[in-house]
Amino acid sequence: MIMRDTDNPELTAAWATVPEVATAQERHEAAVKLRRDFPRGQTPAEALAAVQDDAIATFTAAGKWPTDYAKRAAKAHADAVAWEAEALALRRLEDLTKATAEDLRDALSADVLTHLGGRLTETLEAAKDAGEILGDVTSAEQAIEAGVDVLDAWRRLTGLLGDFRNVREAQWSVLRSVAGEDERARMRLWIRDGHGEIQGVRLDHVPPHIVDVMRSQTYSIEYLVWLARSGAGYVPTSFEDLEAAVVDSTGSVVYDDAGPLVDYSPRETTIPEPPAPKPTGAERTPVLSY
Questions:
Q1: E strands of the chain, at which residues?
Q2: What is the superkingdom listed in this entry's lineage (predicted)?
Q3: Residue 288 within any structural domain of the chain
Q4: Of 19, 108, 133, 215, whose CA is between 20 and 30 Å from 266?
Q5: Are the C-beta atoms of residues 90 and 38 closer than 8 Å to each other?
Q6: How high is the pLDDT of residue 252?
Q7: Across the strands, what pairs with 259?
Q8: Number of structural domains the chain divides into
Q9: Does 161 share its domain with 60?
Q10: Average confidence (pLDDT) per 10 residues, the chain, 290 residues
Q11: How far apart are CA 228 and CA 171, in angstroms?
């Protein structure tokens, strides 16, 4: 695998928006091709051994030592030294261009994650529009029965769901690539708990079946429409951004080797004011006669 190559189109497109990374990727791919196309050769030791074996075989068969042995040995050694020098240079070139490209990827990861955040916004806006047409439909069978417009909305959401999955997969790929071992371990815990999907909303205020989807990442059209309507979907731009969102959605969380230490102290919950009653059209001002 070359430099964390991927078949995820969202991740590929995101990296391509960073020109420096795209250029470094091209340089690395060119270096890989140069080394692969470089013809096989012999090391100096192997080349000398081949000349020696040939001379010994000649002497064994004819009883004469080749008079040009020294000349042949010198040429074979010189050619092998030149071949080995270029082979080593090409291998070093491949390693250095790989390291350079990956270092750039890590340094510019925030730009890539910002691009993915934009793609998520586009996807959710389109999903919200399609969801308005969908109404309460929750299956393809219901969409077929509901008519052409609803069926078209369902099909659009099916395509958007694929885009959404790719964006989320790309998000975690980038975050893992720039995180250390300890940070990746914490991210695994956060993913297991459903973090990295929404911000500005406490998880205990989210419907349980939606939290289950966040935790399992078994995304569905129902979840996509819910997320689009919530307005809370986001892509973290760094590990620190993700960590801050985790704290905001759960309160202060401390981790030990076994995972999060949960604070079970009572929390104050604000109960919203009930909405004003909606007029029914049957109200009228009573007429008081004296």
A1: 254-256, 259-261
A2: Bacteria
A3: no
A4: 215
A5: yes
A6: 53
A7: 256
A8: 2
A9: no
A10: 68 88 91 96 96 96 95 97 97 96 88 96 97 88 90 95 97 90 94 93 91 96 96 95 90 55 42 48 46
A11: 18
